[in-house]
Amino acid sequence: MDKIIPISDLQTKAKKYVDQVRETEQPVIVTQRGRASAVLVNYELYEGMLATLAVAEVIRDQDEAPLSGPGHPHVLQLALRLGVVVAM
Fold first, then answer.
1. DSSP class per residue in 12-76
2. Distance of alpha carbon 25 from its chain centroid, rounded?
């Protein structure tokens, strides 16, 4: 279950929540005026979400050709976005 805190708690106890997110890998939802306004997540999770988004964008943008082989343009585009070296 996600932890939900008001922004006033984050303002006064930021270190506590950053440590908690880093150690537990569980996000903390921050509210403002009773509504969710931000999510505090650990950096590794954030990087994973960015990588997943990059993959989804490449898949969305690809044409009808299937992904095949390390020299395929879509594989190279994905590798570039993720910072992966592709041996050819």
1. HHHHHHHHHHHHH---EEEEETTEEEEEE--HHHHHHHHHHHHHHHHHHH--SSPP-STTSHHHH
2. 13
**CA 42/CA 5 separation, integer angstroms:** 16
Residues 6+ apart with CB under 8 A from 25: 42, 44, 45
pLDDT (tens place) for every residue of the chain, 88 residues total: 679 999 999 999 999 999 999 999 999 999 999 999 999 999 999 888 888 887 777 766 665 455 555 555 666 666 677 666 655 5
Q: How many CB atoms lie within 10 A of CB 19?
A: 11
